[in-house]
Design brief:
The protein has 202 residues and is an alpha/beta fold. Helices cover 46% and strands 14% of the residues. It has one domain: Rossmann fold, CATH 3.40.50. The protein has a 5-stranded parallel beta sheet, with helices on both faces. The N terminus and C terminus are likely disordered.
């Protein structure tokens, strides 16, 4: 049995927002093992998985998108207030509902860290092996976020990473640094080594 004393009892929500293909899930996958190594209990809510398991049947109207994000936010709130690090990796295109989720989580006394995963559409279109951006730009796909449906950039994100300019290690190190700054994880020798390694490959 794992000793709960090993775990950080301060719950928090790490909220990735950004366009499809910007690197939200990739960064979450990079950061979660590092957090677990430091004794943080972590659960990940990936946008695609939530759509399948928690929000099945919802469409892509603003109302349905907001409902989807509120559901993710509610689960994050429950996890965070019970000492878990909740990681959300969903587009979450509308600023008002993101801010609503932040207020609800912070009202419970848990930290909320908004990470804007920024990447230009032309780069995303080049990365997109499925060709969805090119089809959306051609008008073949309706309600496509960033093309035919709006994406509202965060006005004051806690962390901004630019995945067209930074490698994964550099972006991950910036996010870990913010979590450390908030006192949500301890800075260990291993953590210092991790940060130095990230800097070395930047």
């Amino acid at each position: 049995m794992t000793d709960n004393k090993q775990f950080n009892i301060k719950g928090f929500t790490l909220w990735f927002t950004g366009l499809s293909g910007a690197g939200k899930s990739t960064l979450a996958a990079e950061i979660v093992p590092e957090l677990r190594e430091r004794g943080v209990r972590v659960e990940v809510l990936d946008g695609d998985e939530v759509r399948t398991n928690l929000s099945k049947g919802l469409g892509f109207s603003k109302e349905d998108r907001d409902t989807n994000i509120r559901r993710i936010g509610y689960v994050c709130r429950l996890l965070a207030r019970n000492g878990v690090g909740a990681v959300s990796a969903a587009i979450s295109p509308y600023r008002d509902v993101r801010d609503e989720v932040r207020r609800a989580i912070e009202a419970d006394g848990a930290a909320f860290i908004e990470v804007y995963v920024k990447c230009p559409i032309d780069v995303l279109a080049e990365r997109d092996v499925k060709g969805l951006y090119k089809r959306a730009l051609a008008g073949e796909i309706k309600e496509f976020t960033g093309i035919s449906d709006p994406y509202e950039e965060p006005l004051r994100p806690d962390v901004t990473v630019e995945t067209d300019r930074e490698n994964i290690a550099t972006s991950a190190a910036k996010i870990i640094a913010e979590i450390e700054r908030r006192g949500l994880v301890s800075t260990s020798v291993a953590a210092v080594d991790y940060s130095q390694a990230c800097a070395a490959v930047a």
